């Protein structure tokens, strides 16, 4: 009797390729589908021509093909409630619910959540009115950081080193609408100098397990030049991060985030 699991991975990026590559190495995994996938995933899995945001078609595909477990990669379907919909259909799925995904989908929501929970974060203000945002920017020390609140494929953040850059960034987001609805609200932050590190964790709602550290390099050109992208490359684990730093992040950030999420249900 074949007890191998059939897996569906949703997404089309390098992340989904890596997930398919690793899952394919597990003895208990049989067939792997990736929707919509890419050239890389086609070498180790079967690509399915369904967009990551077409939640109903993905649910129907999972039911028809008796998918045992689905892994969601991109932010957009998570923000759209794909995990909630899969659970409603009785399907096993890995990813945050629509409510939990707000921490990623809305920077304004995330910053308010951090302030509410006492989680350290850069000083900030949020605006949905362009003129008010412009007046605030003109009153703040430079450099500062302008962020489209919504999902913008990793491109919605600009470190502004001149007032002209800050004004141009605000205009692009709120007037020219280069990120669409993601620019309905902006977050304007103080600029913090230093190295960046990402620390991810798995959680069952009660406990959490940290993954190895990673450092994302987002600017499109060498030498950290040019606009941000969704990520040009990543170093993991990060050599300069100490166990003491990880413990501090665990206690001051991860634990309070989980506590706040539990309080909100």
State the domain count.
Answer: 3
**Overall body shape:** globular
Binned, the helix content reads: 25-40%
Main β-sheet description: 5 strands, parallel
Structural class comes to: alpha/beta
CATH fold call of the largest domain: Rossmann fold
Enzyme class: ligase
Keywords: ATP-binding, Ligase, Manganese, Metal-binding, Nucleotide-binding, Purine biosynthesis
Pathway: Purine metabolism; IMP biosynthesis via de novo pathway; N(1)-(5-phospho-D-ribosyl)glycinamide from 5-phospho-alpha-D-ribose 1-diphosphate: step 2/2
Pfam families: GARS_A, GARS_N
Structure description:
The protein folds into three domains: about 5-100, Rossmann fold, CATH 3.40.50; about 105-190, ATP-grasp fold, A domain (Dna Ligase, domain 1, 2-Layer Sandwich), CATH 3.30.1490.20; about 200-265, D-amino Acid Aminotransferase, Chain A, domain 1, CATH 3.30.470.20. Helix 5 (about 100-105) crosses helix 6 and helix 7 runs antiparallel to helix 8 (about 165-175). The strands form four sheets. A five-stranded parallel beta sheet has the order 3-2-1-4-5, sandwiched between helices. It has nine helices and 13 strands. It has helices spanning about 15-25, 55-65, 75-80, 80-90, 100-105, 105-115, 130-140, 165-175, 245-265, and strands at about 5-10, 30-35, 45, 70, 95, 125, 145-150, 155-160, 185-190, 200-205, 210, 215-220, 225-235. It is of the alpha/beta class. It starts with a strand and ends with a helix.
